[in-house]
Amino acid sequence: MSTRHGLPADPARAESFLPAGALGANANVVGPRFAVASASGPYITDTDGNRYLDYVTGAGALILGHQHPAVVEAVVRQAGRTMHQYGALTDVAIELASQLVDAIPCAERIVFATTGSEATAYSMRLARAVTGRDLIVKFEGGFHGNHDYAGIAVASPTTADYPTGKPFTAGTPGPVRDTMLVVPYNDLEALERLVTPVLDRVAGIIAEPVQRIIPPLPGFLEGLRRFCDRHGLLLIFDEVVTGFRLSYQGAQGYFGVTPDLAAFGKIIGGGGTLSCVAGRADLIDRTSPRLKGTPRFVYTSGTFHGNPLAAAAGLATLELLRRPGFYEDLADRTRRLSRHLTDVLEAHGRRAMVAAAGSLWQILHIDRPPERYADLLSSDQEANRRLDRALLANGINVIPGLRRFVSPVHSDEHFEMTARALDRACHELAGTRDRACGPG
Predict the structure, then answer these.
(1) How much is the average pLDDT of 56-75?
(2) To the nearest 10°, the Cα dihedral for 400, 403, 409, 415?
(3) pLDDT-derived band of residue 64, with 50, 70 and 90 as boundaries?
(4) Distance between CA atoms of 218 and 185, rounded to whole angstroms?
(5) At what angle do helices 188-195 and 220-231 cross, to 10 degrees?
(6) Which of 176, 140, 144 has the alpha carbon at shortest distance from 161?
(7) Distance between CA 296 and CA 303 in Å, rounded?
């Protein structure tokens, strides 16, 4: 495919205009590369006409698959009414807010934002403002967005010097790093030991209820809730990924633990740019513009907060997610895919497993399900990336080293297709004497 200037629309040309010809840090710049021209259902098609079975699904935002007719119709209809307003309510934003409050256990109010990163940043700001304390506890390896506070102890090659974490990116001010306390995920004893000495400075705890691909151990989230209640801290769930993914009530409903605040994104905009912070009214109401000019006011504002196009897409998506059995079916599809892939890995004697949580999955070269970041570090991460790149070369779209998602548009036929691609990938890597392959 060419552009209107007659030049090819491909990654090689993108190198002239974009760093590494990519749209962000998680882009695949090693191995097969392509530019997407179109997408439909479970497939994306590149500018050369090649079709890939897609498990990235917009980082999980497209829970219904690409170009779902109901979502497309809602966006087109809304575009004919109004595409953007700033500072003014729209009917679709009001209706979406109402449905979010109805669905989310912790939500007495919500405040809209644009991205998941904004939502987690606002959550931390609220916690600090309400408590008058500066420190936030996060869990090692947890990803909470692209702002400076989120970028501590995200993907270090070694575990943290608890409770100190290293910045994920250059340009992070030292004082920002010093406001974040880092503890290992799924470890309540470490939380008590590391945080108790500075409790009078701690505003709250932020956690992904499922951290990347690591589920909480039994009692862990309940322990966080008790710890916060006992010490007067705010518990923040980062549900940007798990929200409306694990269940219609998010991880809160799935695990039965209610935080004080929660950040949501991705699915609530139906693939559009929209996020929110949900929580108790006394907390969220601190963002009320009626408080401007007072010490209680917490600033939240953005040009695209509550964008009507994204709100319309979100409403169409939520309507379909409310269908009886939706989430049970999604989890069952993921189990079927996992069985197919596990059979292939075992047949090749590959020292790897399929880690899964709800409709999230990832192949890891590890001996047992991960419980904390240190377990992921102990896996053969280079083998993970090599296998993922081989899958991509065989027509399965994944981002090397990152989790992926199952949608209702993924069928048993697609799972068998994925298994065959994995089989070919394993054969190809065995031919290169990949060290993750077993003796067979």
Answers:
(1) 97
(2) 70
(3) very high
(4) 13
(5) 20
(6) 140
(7) 23
Rounded to an integer, what distance in angstroms lies between the CA atom of residue 317 and that of residue 346? 37
Measured CA to CA, the distance from residue 217 to residue 46 in angstroms comes to 40
9: pLDDT strictly greater than 80: no
Q: CA 83 from chain center: how many Å?
A: 26
Query: Could you tell me if residue 398 is left (phi over 0), alpha (psi between -120 and 50 degrees) or otherwise beta?
Result: beta
Largest CA distance in the chain: 70
Cα dihedral 360, 366, 369, 370 in deg (nearest 10): -90
Q: What is the predicted pLDDT for the residue at 7? A: 54
Q: What is the pLDDT of residues 403-440, one digit of tens each?
A: 999 999 999 999 999 999 999 999 999 877 565 655 43
- Cβ-proximal residues to 84 (8 Å cutoff; 6+ apart), any chain: 304, 307, 308, 309
204-259 per-position pLDDT tens digit? 999 999 999 999 999 999 999 999 999 999 999 999 999 999 999 999 999 999 99
* β-pair partners for 262: 237, 278
| Mean pLDDT of the 292-306 span | 96
Examine the pLDDT at 30 and tell me if it is beyond 80. no
Instruction: Return the pLDDT at 160.
Output: 74
Residues facing residue 205 across a β-bridge? 137, 235
Residue 247, token pair as written in the block:
């269940």
Angle between helices 69-79 and 308-321 (to 10 degrees): 150
The string over 385-416, giving b where at least 16 C-beta atoms fall within 10 Å of a residue's C-beta and e elsewhere, is bbbbbbbbebbbbbbbbbbbbbbbbbeeebbe
Q: With the C-alpha atoms ordered 341, 342, 347, 350, is the resulting torsion angle positive or negative?
A: positive
Distance of alpha carbon 273 from alpha carbon 270, whole angstroms = 8
DSSP 286-333: GG-GGGTTSTT------TTTT-HHHHHHHHHHHHHHTSTTHHHHHHHH
Per-residue pLDDT, 168:
85
State how far the Cα of 253 lies from the Cα of 269, in Å rounded to an integer: 20
Q: How far apart are the first and last CA of the chain?
A: 43
Rounded Cα distance, 124 and 236, in Å? 8
Give whole-number Cα distances, 427 to 353, 379, 416, in Å: 17, 21, 17
Q: What H or E segment, with its residue span, contains residue 279?
A: strand 275-279
Position of tokens 């269940």? 247
Written as six digits, the tokens of 175 are 């004082």
- CA dihedral sign, ordered 381, 166, 371, 329: negative
